[in-house]
Specification:
Elements lengths: L2 H9 L1 H8 L3 E5 L2 E6 L2 H12 L5 E3 L11 H4 L19
Antiparallel strand pairs: 1-2, 1-3
Length: 92
């Protein structure tokens, strides 16, 4: 998800920094659809322009965050599966 937008930002980072500075960009595909001073302005404009479509909202100066969820990777957490009650059958 948002691979094209991330690739565009990464490959055009210097150009976008020169053009937009510290503005918050709304990126859809390989196009900047807007540049804003605040996150709130960027979110509102993205919702009005793109509706429920996925867009990347980020400052060009910000590095791509590394996201790691070891608990999911290791199988410690499972989405949508309830855990058994471990206290059942134990006396207090």
């Amino acid at each position: 998800m948002l691979d094209a937008e991330r690739k565009f930002l990464s490959s055009h980072r210097e150009e976008l920094l020169k053009q937009y500075g510290g503005k918050i960009l709304v990126i859809k595909g390989e196009e900047v659809s807007g540049a804003y001073d605040t996150m709130n302005e960027a979110l509102q404009a993205a919702a009005l322009t793109h509706g429920l479509d996925n867009v990347l909202i980020r400052k060009p100066a910000d590095a791509d965050p590394d996201v790691s969820v070891p608990a999911l990777t290791l199988g410690i957490l499972s989405a949508g599966i309830s855990q058994p009650d471990r206290s059942a059958g134990q006396d207090s």
